[in-house]
Specification:
Elements (H helix, E strand, L loop, with lengths): L1 H23 L11 E6 L5 H12 E2 L2 E2 L2 E6 L4 H13 L3 E5 L3 H9 L4
Parallel strand pairs: 1-4, 4-5
Antiparallel strand pairs: 2-3
């Protein structure tokens, strides 16, 4: 019986600690659905560079960025192919060429440019 009392007391202390920490930490604001970031794909980029940049963009200030638009400006075929495969697996990434950007933004944001 004393082991059950000790275990119960420890669980209660842990619960109180979690409640205290959650009260101290600032609340995370919800990311708006229409938030997006444009990541230009340039000739100097490699697939590894793009992967690192996407990882850095995906989390800003501890919260997930809405959508990342991979903008193919002057990238090589290897990077373009990598990004196409990546976009098929992840619904938070979109690949487009410069001439398609306005259409993509309008469809995602509903904005009048």
């Amino acid at each position: 019986m004393p082991a059950a009392v000790i275990a119960g007391t420890l669980l209660l202390c842990l619960l109180l600690l979690l409640l205290t920490v959650s009260a101290i930490l600032p609340e995370q604001e919800e990311v708006p659905d229409d938030l997006f970031t444009v990541l230009p794909l340039l000739q100097s980029d490699s697939a590894a560079t793009v992967r690192r940049r996407i990882g850095a963009l995906a989390w800003q200030d501890g919260c997930m960025v809405g959508m990342v638009i991979l903008l193919a400006i002057d990238c090589d075929e290897e990077v373009l192919s990598y990004c196409e495969r990546l976009c098929l697996r992840r619904n938070d990434l979109r690949l487009c060429r410069l001439e398609e950007l306005e259409t993509l933004v309008r469809s995602h944001h509903g904005a009048v440019l």
